[in-house]
Amino acid sequence: MVQLDSRPKVAGPAAGADAKDGVRSKGLNSNSVGLLGNSVIGVSTVAPVYCLTTTLGTTVAAVGLQMPALFLAGFLPMMLVAFAYRELNKAVPDSGTSFTWTVKAFGPHVGWMCGWGLVVATIIVLSNLAGVATEYFYLLLGEATGSEWITGLNDDKLVHVLTCLALIAVATAISYRGMTATKGVQYALVGLQLTVLGIFAVMAIGKAVAGDAPGSLDFSWSWLDPFQASSFSSFVAGLSLSLFMYWGWDACLSANEETGGSEKTPGRAALLAMVVLVGSYLFTAVAVQMYAGVGSTGTGLGNPETSSNVFAALAGPVMGPTLGILLFVAVLASAAASLQTTFIPVSRTVLAMSVYEALPPSFTEVNEKYRTPGRAIVTAGVGTGVFYTVMTLISENVLSDTIAALTLMICFYYSLTAFACAWYFRRDFGRSVRDALLKVVFPLLGGLTLAGIFAQSLRDMVSPDYGQGSSVFGIGSVFVIGVGVLALGLVVMAVMMRRSPAFFRGEVLTRETPALVLPE
């Protein structure tokens, strides 16, 4: 490991910059990926096949036949926020993304909490991805060998946790080796999962149209109307689930310092990834709904045995015993691919926070050979393993409620970033229609939408019936976990305020601080 000695000093907003162009690098490997590679990383981090198999059933439970509409509705605020990310990245191409931008817009305290929201959301997602990858690893082995005993190994808590930790270790090692190694693995895994997903959807529609599915439904355009949801609460619940399905596209921006054309390419890659995702989600949602329907018996999406793991339940009926194995492979590939790329946003954010003195200096260590933030990657891997192990040993219900609370973290830091964009570029509002819309209006609308979902979700999560139905002193455990995790950030921030007062006095990172990456 090599310790960077270029952390900003407190002498002024541009302190610590190189003489050349007033900018300097954090030591990451620039020009490692291009537009396609960055887009693939964005799609991979979201893990579309994994998201679909875990969310199709629960979304139907919330909004019924309006499931495709909610997937589309969830896309709209995310697209508005994506415009904010793109414009901010053009002005400040920094791997700290949300953290750096909100500090520049709103000051160190709000910015630090925004960075905290991103980091804890990523750790929660990493732990869940590892768990799903482990489950499908044994499901795939069981299907391939025809052995129920092998499939049942996933139910052995010790075996499950040890396998999960092994997968986390492998993903950590690949991420440690740098963006080039990441890119090669991702092309194969993303290509595989999208191809199999397309085959599955086409076969499902074909069987539904041919009348070979007992619960099949005819397509209706009303499925795409979100306003036909039964209530506002059910609409928000479905929308929260759809937001989870799009989370992770911002990994494209976290890799900006390692992308060719760092000012423009990451933003374009994020938008391209979003288009691929919404297309995949809508096509698959319609196909599954046409084939299985929303009934509570058989393969219906309202049947708990189907909704808990949709692709596991439908793989055989739709694709047959041989091709059905490919769907198990696709889910495993999706979870494994995302497990590996999700290290990108958390490690680059932690690196940036450390460089700007918002976290301890040890996290500025960059591996000399691979030029990756090695200390941050390893710490994220260890933190993920510890978190998953503890949550699993306490209760699987607690782990599920932690995942349900993820909506709060997602809405929290995405909305702050969107508001930061509108505020940062507020003086550009009158320059042109383009600047007014893309820099202020669209980000503001996206931020307000996510803030509204955050508020409504808080209100709903107070109920003990939310999530797995557990409570703490009569308050829903999902609310306690979500608010507790964010409140923990305030405690950690208070500690860092004593250890690194210069950052919190606004002496290290200001609006005038130059980007820490050389422009193309």
Give the averaged pLDDT, no decimals: 84
The run of helices and strands is EHHHHHHHHHHHHHHEHHHHEEHH
Helix content: 55-70%
The N- to C-terminal Cα distance equals 27 Å
The tally of domains stands at 1
Low-confidence stretches: 1-24
Proportion of beta-strand residues: under 5%
How is this structure best described in words?
It is a single chain. By secondary structure, the protein is mostly helical. The chain has helices at 35-46, 48-63, 67-91, 97-106, 108-145, 148-152, 157-176, 179-210, 232-246, 251-254, 265-292, 304-307, 310-341, 343-355, 374-394, 396-404, 406-424, 433-461, 477-499, 501-504, and strands spanning 2-3, 365-366, 471-472, 475-476. It is 69% helix and 2% strand. The strands form two sheets. Strands 1-2 form a two-stranded antiparallel ribbon. The chain has a two-stranded antiparallel ribbon with strand order 3-4. It has 20 helices and four strands.
Write the layout of secondary structure elements.
Blueprint: E1 2-3, H1 35-46, H2 48-63, H3 67-91, H4 97-106, H5 108-145, H6 148-152, H7 157-176, H8 179-210, H9 232-246, H10 251-254, H11 265-292, H12 304-307, H13 310-341, H14 343-355, E2 365-366, H15 374-394, H16 396-404, H17 406-424, H18 433-461, E3 471-472, E4 475-476, H19 477-499, H20 501-504
Antiparallel strand pairs: 1-2, 3-4
